[in-house]
């Protein structure tokens, strides 16, 4: 009879606690930098069962998953699956997870601010960066409503004046 493994409800994966009751691809997708498609590719390349729960995996399988991404490469997958293609400094394709991804993104934003590119200026001003509309959305602070044109304001004041003078009854 084989040794019965105990089910792990919380699994430590890439320095992050992941729910062990989830199926392996969905649990891997909970890690920052790994989406569902990337998780499926990892599970397929490692030969794991995609229908098993993460808590059912042995410690060796979990180590195998972590070691698969330690060199920042996913072996035998197309380049378009990487989340950092053609790195600015090294020029190589990488796949980053957790704190590495956060670090690289923060450095990219700081570099853009330093060279004062359009994106860097937008980041430093706290405005939208990717060309979204800013006239009506993304307002911060106490700005509420829309400013009316002078013609519309004059027409509204005239209507108020007519309503107030015409609505009063004269007593005599």
- The overall strand count is 2
N-to-C CA distance: 109 Å
Estimated share of beta-strand residues: under 5%
From the spread of the alpha carbons, the general shape counts as elongated
Strand order of the largest sheet: 1-2
What report would you give on this structure?
- The chain is mainly alpha-helical.
- It has a domain at 10-73: Orthogonal Bundle (Helicase, Ruva Protein, domain 3), CATH 1.10.8.
- The protein has helices at residues 24-28, 36-46, 59-68, 98-115, 118-125, 150-166; strands at 10-13, 16-19.
- Strands 1-2 form a two-stranded antiparallel ribbon.
- The longest helix has 18 residues, at 98-115.
- The mean pLDDT is 83.
Structural features:
single chain; 172 residues; mainly alpha; Helicase, Ruva Protein, domain 3; two-stranded antiparallel sheet; 2 strands; 5% strand; elongated; rRNA-binding; structural constituent of ribosome; Rbsml_uS13_C; Small ribosomal subunit protein uS13
